[in-house]
Amino acid sequence: MAHIAGLGALDVGDTTTMRSRANAAAIANHPTDESASRTHTGRLLTSCQTASMVNRPDGDQFHFDPATYLETIREEVPAYDELQDAVAEATASIRAERVLELGVGTGQTSRRVLDLHPEAELVGIDESAEMLAVASADVAAADLRVSRLQDPLPEGTFDLVVSALAVHHLDGAGKADLFVRVADRLRPGGRFVLGDVVVPDDPADVVTPIDGVYDQPSAIGDQVRWLAAAGLDAEVVWARRDLAVIVADAVLMPPALARTAKHDR
Ligand SMILES: C[S@@+](CC[C@H](N)C(=O)[O-])C[C@H]1O[C@@H](n2cnc3c(N)ncnc32)[C@H](O)[C@@H]1O
After folding, report:
1. Per DSSP, which regions of 84-170 are E strands?
2. 230 CA to centre of ligand 1 in angstroms
3. Alpha helix locations (H) across 91-214?
4. What's the 98 CA to ligand 1 centre distance in angstroms?
5. Range of the domain at 38
6. Total structural domains in the chain?
7. 101 Cα to the center of ligand 1, angstroms
8. By alpha-carbon position, which residue is closest to atom 1 of ligand 1?
9. Is the same domain home to 53 and 156?
10. Which of 4-13, 102-111, 127-136, 215-224 shows the lowest per-residue confidence on average (mean pLDDT)?
């Protein structure tokens, strides 16, 4: 039995996998949607919404099934492990005592980051208590909280903020808003490492199945711009087809001042 902040005790075995009526409705409403078809590769549903989806009693169906997650995501994102390693590697040069992770899932990213920063305290959020229950077995010391990316971020200052394959669930405005809130949590000289599926320049590089509804990737250029607008110095450090890792450093001045300075240029 795992205990997760925001939910209390949870029996992971209680989760069930099934295609939900709500999701079927989403499919019916979007099969010819231009914005969806521009990026998807033929399948309308991703691992989030088929084998890996959990039907919750509260009616909120867009959740992964932790039992099938790793197998399915590795099938759908062939460079999944390389992406995870690249995210962790991008954190290596930062002295990290406090780490915030956004979209922890089953803890694949957390474990790699903590391997490099064994003394760090990791605070992680995810909207899925079921995923966090699995993560808590792997990264037992982490402070895991059921919370959405759209919610206020955990209080305090962090040396590192990391996120893998989660931020693409927000639309463009949601990402830009999140990046400002991330910048406000970073200490001067701190770092945000974002690994995610992106809209590649060349449509032939679309590999990951995207539904355009739950998955809303953005172009790298847009994300670098939104990070800069948040007062962070952003740079792409790894890219493979429709995956990328962006490092965004907090300059040595408070982010609100950095944003003003950029605005005044
Ligand atoms: C593809 S998984 C990635 C998990 C992990 N970072 C990894 O790389 O394996 C996406 C995770 O983001 C979470 N998620 C999706 N939308 C979210 C939101 N709006 N707020 C918080 N978590 C969200 C899901 O519950 C899921 O655990």
Report:
1. 98-102, 121-126, 143-146, 158-164
2. 22
3. 108-116, 129-138, 172-185
4. 20
5. 2-76
6. 2
7. 10
8. 165
9. no
10. 4-13
Task: Report residue 151 as tokens.
Answer: 């919610």
Tokens representing 168 are: 């693409």
- Specify the ligand 1 atom closest to the Cα of 149: 20
Q: Which of 26, 58, 76 corresponds to the end of one domain? A: 76
| Confidence tier at 221 by pLDDT (50, 70, 90) | very high
Q: What is the pLDDT of residues 152-206, one digit of tens each?
A: 999 999 999 999 999 999 999 999 999 999 999 999 999 999 999 999 999 999 9
CA distance 67 to 131: 9
- What CATH code is carried by the domain that includes residue 192? 3.40.50.150
Of 33, 49, 76, which marks where a domain is finished? Answer: 76
Residues 45, 148, single domain; the answer is no
DSSP helix/strand/coil, 10: strand
Same structural domain for residues 97 and 58? no
Residues 59, 167 within the same domain: no
Q: Atom 26 (ligand 1): residue with closest C-alpha?
A: 105
pLDDT recorded at residue 261: 66
The predicted model gives 207-232 an average pLDDT of 94
pTM of the model: 0.80
At 135-148, the pLDDT tens digits run 999 999 999 999 99
Same domain, 63 and 194: no
Q: Residues near ligand 1 with C-beta < 6 Å?
A: 63-64, 73, 103-105, 108-109, 126-128, 131, 148-150, 164-166, 169
Which residues, in sequence order, are bridge partners of residue 234? 248
